[in-house]
## 1
Amino acid sequence: MPTEKDIRKFDGPKTPFYYYDTDMLNRTLESVTSESAKYGFHVHFAVKANFNRRIMETIAGHGLGADCVSGNEIKLALETGFKPADIVFAGVGKSDTEIGYALDSRIFCFNCESVAELQVINELAVAGGSVASVALRINPNVDANTHSYITTGIEDSKFGIRMEDLERAVSFASESNGLKLRGMHFHVGSQILNLNVFRNLCVRINEMLNWFDSRGNFIDVINVGGGLGIDHSNPDALPPFAEYFRIFGTMLERKPHHKIFFELGRAITGQSGSLITRVLYIKEGENTSFAIVDAGMTDLIRPSLYQAYHKIENITSAVGEVRYTVAGPVCESADVFARNIPLPVTRRGDLLAIRSAGAYGEVMASRYNMRDLPGSIFSDEAI
Ligand SMILES: *Cc1c(COP(=O)(O)O)cnc(C)c1O
């Protein structure tokens, strides 16, 4: 947890800002790499969770690959030390420019979401004299039991190829000169804490392996996606990587030639970041006291968008206990970080840490209300 001393040593930087705990990030990465290495798994960082350059460089330094969802993410991954052979490109709406850039960059594989997309990648690859490796994103119809905005693997989700269309997609990919069918790709949702969801996913993947086998289609890449959640009520805890990888290690009916890919975002950076904000005003409401802070939904949109819970700590005061609704300055009723939570007696000028904000935080910041974008500071930064 960031302490007042940690923050003050930066001599009162302009709040709000993201504070990244480098030690926590390194410990998380050490756990990911050692637990996944037990089974020879390849872990790719889902860049969309946090594309802060220093975070990307740290992750590349630990030898992970990158899972990108735009051409700009591919460009940044290459600039921050990820090798082309460790980059995969996903996304339901890849533009021609992005596909061309990915082909020129010689990334490892495209995760494809429709027959129409396969046709475009094939045309562009043939035109440029190259062959694109592709994995088909299959909609496994496994319910992630999470918020509907972050559930992606059920029927009628815009993501993935439906079983009915799979035959056509496989035939097209196998017969096209510009494509090489390498594997299958899944991703069922995000912030998944019930590990049974991943057990169900393994059962579906095994069924699909049999399906490919029975048709005589050779594939060597099984990309199981990401989605492992973090414990928001315990922001100093690492995600359960050992148990998570053990599920896939014991359940997948894997052959020696299969490469198993993971795409983790939130679990890698989520617990390493806090949004630091200053209390501007204390205001009495009818049934609650408001702590109006200088961070808003423009800095961290998750509570407004997903009703996400983030633990909030007052890092400058520890005396007493009062209930506050912590709200931002943006002109939207949804601009509230938490309602009626217990905090020490809080005053104007106090600093609050909104925890577990290292994934889908800084990257989703906007300039609505013409607000400044939040800055970022690392715990080990030279001062
Ligand atoms: C968002 C996303 C991920 C990462 O999800 P997390 O919940 O952050 O682990 C992985 N793969 C795909 C295809 C995604 O869209």
## 2
Amino acid sequence: MRSAVLSLLPLLAVGAAAQAENLYTATATSDVYAAQATAKTLSNTSNVKGKAFDRFVVIWLENTDYDMAYGDENLNWLAKQGITLSGYHAVTHPSEPNYNDDFNQIAKNVSTIIDLLEDKGISWAEYQEDMPFSGFSGKAWVNQQNGKNDYVRKHNPAVIYNSAAGQVDRLASMKNLTMFQQDLQNDALPQWMFITPNMTSDAHDSDIQTAGAWTRNFLEPLLNDKKFMKNTLVLVTFDENETYSIQNRILGILLGDAVPAELVGTTDDHFYNHYSEIATVEANWDLHTLGRFDVGANVFQFVADKTGDRVRAWNDDVTELSQRYFNFSYAGAFNTDGGNRRYPAPDLCGAGKTHNRTVLPSIQEMWSGSSAPGYYTAELEIPDGLNPPSGYAPVQ
Ligand SMILES: *[C@@H]1O[C@H](CO)[C@@H](O)[C@H](O)[C@H]1NC(C)=O
Ligand SMILES: *[C@@H]1O[C@H](CO)[C@@H](O)[C@H](O)[C@H]1NC(C)=O
Ligand SMILES: *[C@@H]1O[C@H](CO)[C@@H](O)[C@H](O)[C@H]1NC(C)=O
Ligand SMILES: *[C@@H]1O[C@H](CO)[C@@H](O)[C@H](O)[C@H]1NC(C)=O
Ligand SMILES: *[C@@H]1O[C@H](CO)[C@@H](O)[C@H](O)[C@H]1NC(C)=O
Ligand SMILES: *[C@@H]1O[C@H](CO)[C@@H](O)[C@H](O)[C@H]1NC(C)=O
């Protein structure tokens, strides 16, 4: 009896680890406060030199057209402290392709930038304003005083991927902004971080003036804080633009002491999109790639100047950029109409790529020989719903 129980233990341990993505999904107030008292929090640090920066910070605001964002006085003030990216485009509407506000979990075999960073020993964290505790994976948490929307799972990119949420230590690195201030004071900020303001602060439930004021209020003191500015590059951007019938162009602002002094106050009008956020980090630290649209994306120009990457112009012969709206998605894993729900396979060979980075070995191992459809190329010109990838069939 006893030995039988003992021999089961390792199996149970494996089983429990596999369920980490479901450990902290309960949203009842009592469950949340109980977990808040016990959930693990991790503040990993590291010091891996990059070619253009040693720390990367992304702040995502919500649903605002380029002109509205650039016209906001506080965002405009921030833009003048750094580089304005005027050719920055979102990928689709709504912000999660085939987004349906459901509780989505992306299969464990889909890797993320977190895998690429950890592979090179680069520390990372997310800081989500008003997330009730590190690793909370529930759908939402409202303001306990007034019941307003506050933290939402759909604005927490890492938790949606089971490859990230399925490991307790990774959950422990998905933290709230209280932890940001604590990590800052303790000089324990990681090298890569993603920051999401709450549903009011990010303009989702408010307006661009509120979000602009929040962002300046948050960043202005940090711009002069030696514990934050350690060859740091900050990107302030938006998930998507608001008006669906016009092109999905959004504002991007690069800030921080990693921005070369002579570029402060300038504009970079190259074509970038959200995959550029990944490609730039890959180029900076010589990371592997995901084998998806990160492979072809442009690296931000001033970084590319130091990494040897070539920043390309959108090729209007492929399809005119002005005719690309990026305003809806072709069906994918979250499609509710039944078809095309397979996860596409990454491109493991990367034919035609303009750099020497290769696909992460663990991704190659997982996906080699997969019969899943492959839509990825090393081209800058990514598809959208009106221009689906070659090989895509509407129903399968
Ligand atoms: C933030 O997360 C920490 C760590 O889980 C938790 O102790 C703290 O109560 C949270 N802060 C707020 C304001 O919810
Ligand atoms: C969002 O955060 C701000 C502070 O950044 C706070 O004043 C506000 O109450 C929060 N909103 C909600 C709905 O909790
Ligand atoms: C934290 O650091 C440890 C030790 O360097 C490393 O093994 C682990 O992958 C890191 N975890 C995260 C979530 O960064
Ligand atoms: C995308 O924009 C084009 C051009 O304005 C428009 O014809 C189309 O209806 C839009 N699609 C959606 C889903 O809004
Ligand atoms: C890729 O590697 C080759 C061979 O080492 C080298 O000649 C070339 O410059 C590299 N290309 C880039 C973009 O780094
Ligand atoms: C990835 O996971 C999905 C969902 O579980 C599965 O359908 C697919 O076959 C897996 N692909 C590979 C290559 O393992």
